[in-house]
């Protein structure tokens, strides 16, 4: 929930903001709810806020009340094309933390150009649900350590959790893996429980990059979705991750939106 409607008309100064639950606020005017605020603790531990209001003054009152009562840092996400909402959060003290580019990826290999793409010599693709749990956890641990030591977890999609105990057995159906011998060297995480399948993470061990493994994993996942009758998948990529953007754009992905992640320190 994060909406600033463009209705006109005066807003009575008697609007009162009340905290109605631990993470919920209401703006009341003559006992009528004229705006709502909400804070959500996401799985990675970060606290995201949102405001739904018809009037900018109500938005400001709700935002001010929430900021006065919540710990820092706080985050919110807005569509880069929504100038009014972006400006409202910037006035409230938020700043741009990062940009996420949203892509629609065609699954048809004749469209993506991935029909003839396979893994490099000595590497095989382990399909979703067939990975060895221990080997996958070992790869997950290496990749997470590499991310933490380089770009940092703040650049990762929110659903890529930093689990203290690694990947759980119920997560296995979400992972397709690239294996070399008995070692796993790359993975892609695909969530299919939503209307449009979502690629949440595609990563290859640092010592196995630039061999075409990431492209082979992408080809496998998209090809499998195509066989199952799914026309497109979705991915969000940090604008700073030029390698990932080049990978999906090279597979005919279409950039459809850009979200701003705003932060208040």
Automatic annotation (TrEMBL):
| InterPro entries named among the record's database cross-references | Acyl_CoA_acyltransferase, Bact_Acetyltransf, GNAT_dom
Question: Which PROSITE patterns does the record cross-reference, listed alphabetically?
Answer: GNAT
Pfam families, per database record: Acetyltransf_1 (PF00583)
What are the record keywords, sorted? Acyltransferase, Transferase
Name the source's superkingdom.
Answer: Bacteria
Q: Where is the N-acetyltransferase domain?
A: 123-265
Mind telling me what this protein is named? GNAT family N-acetyltransferase
Species this chain originates from:
Catenulispora yoronensis
């Amino acid at each position: 929930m994060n909406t600033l409607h463009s209705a006109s008309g005066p807003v009575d100064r008697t609007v009162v903001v009340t905290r109605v639950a631990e993470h919920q606020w209401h703006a009341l005017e003559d006992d009528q709810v004229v705006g709502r605020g909400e804070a959500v603790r996401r799985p990675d531990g970060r606290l995201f806020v949102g405001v739904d209001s018809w009037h900018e003054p109500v938005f400001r009152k709700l935002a001010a009340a929430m900021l006065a009562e919540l710990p820092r840092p706080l985050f919110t996400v807005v569509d880069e094309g929504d100038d009014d909402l972006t400006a409202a959060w910037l006035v409230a003290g938020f700043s741009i933390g990062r940009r996420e580019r949203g892509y629609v990826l065609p699954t048809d290999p004749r469209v993506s150009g991935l029909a003839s793409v396979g893994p490099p010599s000595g590497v095989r693709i382990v399909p979703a649900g067939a990975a060895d749990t221990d080997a996958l956890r070992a790869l997950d641990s290496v990749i997470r350590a590499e991310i933490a030591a380089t770009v940092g977890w703040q650049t990762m999609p929110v659903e890529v959790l930093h689990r203290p105990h690694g990947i759980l057995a119920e997560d296995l159906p979400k992972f397709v893996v690239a294996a070399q011998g008995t070692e796993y060297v790359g993975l892609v995480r695909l969530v299919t429980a939503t209307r449009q399948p979502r690629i949440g993470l595609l990563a290859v061990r640092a010592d196995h990059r630039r061999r075409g493994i990431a492209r082979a994993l992408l080809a496998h996942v998209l090809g499998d979705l195509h066989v199952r009758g799914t026309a497109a998948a979705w991915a969000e990529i940090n604008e700073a991750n030029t390698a990932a953007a080049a990978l999906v754009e090279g597979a005919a992905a279409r950039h459809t939106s850009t979200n701003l992640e705003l932060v208040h320190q």
